[in-house]
What we know:
Distance between the termini: 67 Å
CATH architecture: Up-down Bundle
Radius of gyration: 28 Å
Largest sheet: none
Number of helices: 5
Low-confidence stretches: none
Number of strands: 0
Oligomer: single chain
CATH topology: Four Helix Bundle (Hemerythrin (Met), subunit A)
Strand content: under 5%
Order of helices and strands: HHHHH
Amino acid sequence: MPIWAKIWRGLDNILDALLTPEVGTATSIASLILTVWILTSIRSMRMHYLSTARVPQLLQDLQKNTTGLQSGITAEEWEEAVDIEMVKCRANLNNLAPKLRPSRDSINKVREQIDRYLGAERNKDAARTVYILLTGLNQELVNVLEDKKWSDPHAR
């Protein structure tokens, strides 16, 4: 019997041993687990880099919104300026919320106050409440970014 026939017979025996229903089931389950792990790892890495890139920009935008609210509240014709800043601020918060899980409660509090202001309570006290909450959120975000620098060795 030629050598290639012996090799073919050996491969055939190996394939027969591997192609049993038990082995197929086990490899399917292992493949599913590996696929889920890879997908969660990719999502985690994507969110990390997305938040690393976008959160500082959004923080700057929120600081501009805070300054705009402060100047709008003190202006004589305050309503239109404050309304515009509230809408911009809500858009920035909507963009920021999925990127920062630790600050989501604070973000939601500010969004609720903005929605309350835009809904019915268009007065200076409601605008001041949003301004105060937004100032606190800005500081919280600065702290989160500083903590990230210390916890991520590549960010320094």
